[in-house]
Amino acid sequence: MVNMRALAGVARTYRLGDYVHLGRGEETTGGRDKASILADTVEAIIGCVFLDAGQQAAADLVHRLVDPLMASAGQLGAALDWKTSLQELTASAGLGAPSYDISEQGPDHAKQFSATAMVAGEGLGNGTGRSKKEAEQQAAAAAWTALRDRVPTSAASDPAARDSA
What domains are defined for the chain? Predict the structure, then answer.
């Protein structure tokens, strides 16, 4: 549940990107809102608290930062990991595993990736991002949303109902 996206969200909540010292290249390519930099910043802060004030203080900080995420995890459901959720949905509907068509553009220091989530040969969702993973997650979210309405609830939750169809 706690991953780069979640930690980046914590960093955004506290506007930590405003306080990170970046090189010129990262500054010009939007590094202040880059998920990997923000997640690393949260991890560094936790490490600093551990080194300066000890394990209990670091544990208290982690709980303050992460417990709200854990409390809302039940409502997030599929949004925790869209690729996994899409794969579960396609498997329950007998559609096979999704695949992703990826393209990239831009210079090495400012790549932009595009992904299309393919399910049973059909492009169901598109996404873009600064990494392949981010683009795939966005595409999976769009595909999951599009497919959820097509898959009967009984087939998604009851394999026997799906097999008899």
Answer: 4-76 (1.10.1520.10), 81-164 (3.30.160.20)
